[in-house]
Structures are given as structure tokens and as C-alpha cells.
Amino acid sequence: MTLKDQAESASEAGVGRYDWERETTHRTGAGSVDDPYPLIAERRAETPVAHDSFFGMFGLPDPMAAAWPDAERFSTLTYAATEAVLRDNATFSNAGIRRMTEDVFGPVSLMGADDPEHRQFRLLVQPAFGKKAMGLWTSWVKPRLGELIDGFEGDGRAELYFDYCARFPVFVIAMTLGVAREDLDHFHELAAKLQIGAAPAEEARAARHQVEDYMRRVIAARRVAPKDDLISLLIDSEIREDGAARKITEEQILGLVCNLLPAGAGTTYRSLGIILVTLLQRPELMARLYADRDLVPLVIEEALRWNGPVLTAPFRLATADAEIEGVKIPKGALVEPGIAAANRDPARFERADEFDPFRAQQPNLAFSFGAHFCVGGQVARMELRSALNALLDRLPNLRFDPDVPEPQLTGLLYRMPTGLPVVWG
Ligand code: HEM
User: Fold this and answer.
1) I want to staple 62 with a disulfide (CB 3.0 to 4.6 A). Which of 55, 98, 298, 313 is the partner?
2) Is position 15 within any domain?
3) Atom number, ligand 1, closest to the C-alpha of residue 173
4) Claim to verify: residue 283 and residue 180 sit in the same structural domain
5) In this structure, what CATH number is given to the domain that contains residue 85?
6) CA 99-326-40 angle, 5° bins
7) How far is the CA of 367 from the centre of ligand 1 (A)?
8) Residues whose CB is less than 8 angstroms from the CB of residue 407 and which lie 6 or more positions away in sequence, other chains included
9) Same domain, 42 and 142
């Protein structure tokens, strides 16, 4: 497929180079919804909490409905309502998503657990983000970025979304987990199918079993000969339970891998693609960024607020009759914490629909909030900074390829660009 064909077909039926990629992205709204924000704003003006799921609001089949066909659905649209749901994990429980995460992650599911089990899982995952582990994540980043840019630098043009953004965070997490380079493409597909809502239950389950079988072999090898990777680190880690220290079990390590793989592989590259499209649509800002790299973190934070890669945190299950911002939620209803809607709430952010990296900084909900806030935020930010800086270092005067239709942002549950054809020099 030429770059032109790719750009044209993207907005029709999902985004991707491979069938599995187009299918998983299409299922989660790519090609069906390009800009969800006008309708969200319309609904927010009527109510802080819509009596519908986000997919329902957009008239799309809800990939999450099968697990709970009869539940009443709600979605929060304001910052205050979203924060209220995320803050109260007892009334708005994560057990609701468990019916889906069991297929995807198995018994260790950070997303599907409530306290005290959830606190235990967060303790288990801590070694993966401690100081030593951050060094491991970082060590894979720069060489990979360099190698990818080497691959197209001489051509003067590239498809940056598929040949740069999409080939980098999945590599970092795969290498950190001890996956062999030749298995990388296959792992990318497995990671995509493990994203919540991205594949039918049987495909998600099959993907999980393949990851587990593979990782059992890696764990066995690392027990004999440890390496400088996350699996060796987790094998070695101890957690304290009832006052005593004990090693993490193999099943727990496998669970953590299945939790981390889709989260680490799927979100950051889409965010990078969104950031780059946003910058290339604003050549003056791009020029300022080349000249002043201190702006890089501001651009990243603002892009995460303005158009993050995730529309909603996993839905919560109301464990009792409740009320959010005056809207009654019956026990047993499912509530989607609309983090993207919250991040565009004009009651919280002035000129909320404007992308303005120079705005006064204040926290947003891109990485969520409360007990389940994203564990990978620091890794994601480090990856985004490095990837942006590497491009600015090596490819001067980056701009959209004038011979290919300009890409656009698309997607509902997961947001992404349709592509990123560029030239430079
Ligand atoms: C731009 C990149 C990313 C964004 C926007 C993002 C966003 C999110 C959001 C919205 C949640 C849901 C939290 C909730 O239920 O309240 C989440 C959870 C999670 N994320 Fe991320 N994430 C990103 C990157 C990563 C990376 C790189 C990793 C790991 C390497 C990661 C690992 C996780 C895990 C394990 C959870 C489950 C946490 C829990 O339920 O306790 N994420 N993330």
C-alpha cells in the first residue's frame, strides 16, 4: 500500500498497516469518530453525567457491552464528576471491569481489583518502576530511537507514525521484558489484542495464553542465568506480606506482564503520534520547539490534556445507590470516568478546546487519578520527551509531506492519528 492509499483508507476502517491493527483500532472507534469533543461539549452543557456509555453516545457498538449486557450505563463529562468517581473507589468499584480483564490479564489485574487486593498488586508492580527499573527502561530508548531514524534519515521523507512512533514503545517494553527481537512484531499484535475492548474475548484470551507461554520460557531462562532486564528484577524482588518478606510468584509475574504489555505498548506511541500531528499543524510552534527544547515537556503535558490517547478510564461499578453532581446513579450501574471530557471542561480549564502549551499549568486527568492512577506515567513521559527530542535533533524543518493527504486525529476509546507522512530538510 502506498502512503497515499494508507492515508485515504485510514479514516474509513481503522488505522494500521496490518489487518489486526486496523481491526483493533476500528473496534475502538478509529475511522468512525474523528473529533469526539463537539458532541461531548454539547452533552456536558446539558448534564455533568450522561445516561449512556461513550460508545452509545456516538451511536457505535460498544465493545465492552457484552460483559454486562443489562447494566445501566453512565459517563462523566465534567472534571468535578470524573474526579468524584475516581476518588471514591468504594462506591465506584473496579470489580465491574473484571469480567473483561480476566480474559486479558488473568487473575492478577490491577485494573479489575479493589483494595485490599489492589494495594497488593500495586506493591507487586512497584519494582518495575523503581530507580533500577527506570534505568532499564531508559537504556533501551535512545538506541532504538537512533536506529529507527537511521533507517529513513537518508530518504528525506517518512511515515513517522508507523515507522517511528509505533515501533518504539512496544520495542522498549518487549526488550525490558526479555522478548527476542525477531518476535517483536508478533508481540506488538499480542499487545494490541490485550488492550481493553480492542479484541473479542476469545482473541484476547488466546493472546494472553501466548504471552504467558512465551514468558514462562523467559522466566525459566532467567532463573538459570539472570540478565539485566525486568523479568530478572521481578524474579529477585520481594514483597512484604503480613510482616514477612516473600518472593513474587511466577503466576504473579505473568499477570504483571499481561498488565504492563498492552498499557506500555499501546498508549505512548499513539500519544506521540497525536503530539506530532498537533505540532505539524502549527509550524510556528514547531519552529519555536526546535529553538527552545525547554518547551518539550510543556507541549507533552498540554497534548495529553487536550487530546490524550485514552478517552475514558475503565468503567466503575456502582456498589450502592449514589449521586454524582446531582445525577442519581443506581446500584449496579456502570460509570465511565470520562477523563478526556474532564480535560476539556471549561469550568476547569480556560479556553479548554484550545491547544496552548503556554497556559498556566495545572493537573489534568490524562493519567487518571486516585487509587488506580497510571503506574507508567513517568515511563511514558520519559519516552515522549526522548522521542520528540531525537526527531528535533536529527530531522530539521519537519513538515507534512505535501504529496500525501494531511493526516487527522481519529478514534474514540483510543485516540490516534491516521498516519504521519512527513518530509524534512
Ligand atoms: C501516554 C501514555 C499513557 C496514558 C495516557 C495512560 C493512561 C492510563 C489511564 C487513563 C489508566 C486508567 C487508570 C484508572 O483506571 O483510573 C491507566 C492505567 C494503567 N497504566 Fe497507563 N497510560 C499510559 C502509559 C502507560 C505505560 C507506559 C505503562 C507501563 C509501562 C502503563 C501502565 C498502566 C497500568 C499497569 C495501569 C493500571 C493501573 C491500576 O489500575 O492500578 N501506562 N493508564
Assistant:
1) 55
2) yes
3) 30
4) yes
5) 1.10.630.10
6) 65
7) 6
8) 7, 10, 161, 277, 400, 417, 418, 419, 420, 421
9) yes
Pocket lining: 380 vs ligand 1, CB cutoff 6 Å: yes
Ligand 1, residue 94: give the atom nearest the CA. 15
Residue 35 grid coordinates: 473529533
- Let me know whether 7 and 51 are in one domain: no
Q: Are residues 251 and 334 in the same domain?
A: yes
Is 400 within the bounds of a domain?
Answer: no
The model's pLDDT over 37-79, given as tens digits with 9 standing for 90+, comes to: 999 999 999 999 999 999 999 999 887 777 788 899 999 999 9
Query: Is 423 within the bounds of a domain?
Result: no
Q: Which residue is associated with the grid cell 506480606? A: 241
pLDDT tens digits for range 312-327:
999 999 999 999 999 9
Q: How far is CA 34 from the centre of its chain?
A: 18
pLDDT tens by residue, 259-288? 888 888 789 999 999 999 999 999 999 999
User: Residue 379: CB within 6 Å of ligand 1?
Assistant: yes
Q: Which of 93, 194, 374, 379 to mutate to test the pocket of ligand 1 (most atoms within 8 A of CB)?
A: 374
DSSP 424: -
